[in-house]
Amino acid sequence: MHVLKVRNVHQALPEVMYLLATQGHNRFSRNGRVRKIPGPVTIEYAKPMERVIFWPERDANPFFHVLEALWMLAGRNDVEFVASIVPMMATFSDDGEILNSAYGHRWRHHFGYDQLPKIAEALANDKDDRRQVLSMWDGTKDLGSKSKDLPCNTQAYFSRTDTGALDMVVTNRSNDAVWGALGANAVHFSMLQEYVAAMIGCSVGKYWQVTNNLHLYLDKYEEFMYHMADKAFPSGQHRDTCPYESGEVRALRLIPSRAVAKFDADVAMFLDDGMTLGMNDWFVRKIANPMKCAIMTYKSQEGSKNTRINIALSILSNMPPESDWRLAAEEWLQRRREE
Predict the structure, then answer these.
(1) Is residue 152 annotated as a catalytic residue, yes or no?
(2) DSSP 8-state class, residue 152
(3) Predicted confidence (pLDDT) per residue in 297-319, tens digit
(4) What pLDDT does 63 receive?
(5) Are the C-beta atoms of residues 166 and 193 closer than 8 Å to each other?
(6) Which of 132, 164, 196, 235 is the most buried (most CB within 10 A)?
């Protein structure tokens, strides 16, 4: 078992690339050559709410990460919404309409009930409870399945610390290091953790990401792996390049404590109608809505690319200046300017 202790996902990226470069083995998979770590890998995030990767080499899509996370918290499994942001998502659907392993749907609907309120209620009533398991893998449906989309993350375990904060451990059967573990997973599971903490009325503790098969696709990311490995400890580059470390940005709270019902209602309306008029939830109004409007403006075909980028940036200027998501979105757009 390899254990990496990091402040946040920005720091984790070069550490994982270094581990892959120095201790990984080359193997073959159904999707091509991979570099795999022998044995499980655990990443311990001390500050999971610092969930944004700022490395330009990684070029993580902040728009997709935020909007997909809200789609998950809403319990959705439709392809249409996520494919409107990243069209490639449609290729993972078996029927063109739903995603089989959509985590949010498995959290909230797949097993015939919503697992999250049950977990939150138990931990609110007894902070020493050790029985709270969130299931995503369904053996009756997933074992032997030929689906394009089976859950990679299988369970999450929730517990509270001596001070009452909510810790979370997520187990994963097989995870791509770039797009999965250090991309979407670090965002939507830390948002899940924060969401459950808001249901309980407590703070967020640590997040452990335990992957049984951590790998990287060599045909696409071999050069990237070695490049980022050079930035690992003790180079100090993760600190020098991290806006959280410098204080340039901070992780803004997703939901006020116990204000989950209003958040749920506003997110559902936002996802269904794309409207925020009359909504009270600040995250939807100040973070999600500007980001959705900005990415849709960029993706439109009206005007030159640079013109669309300028308009999108003006939309993002309505976001809080200290927001981590605002900086990530602005940098992502700037990298797409045409000379």
Answers:
(1) yes
(2) S
(3) 999 988 899 999 999 999 999 99
(4) 97
(5) yes
(6) 196
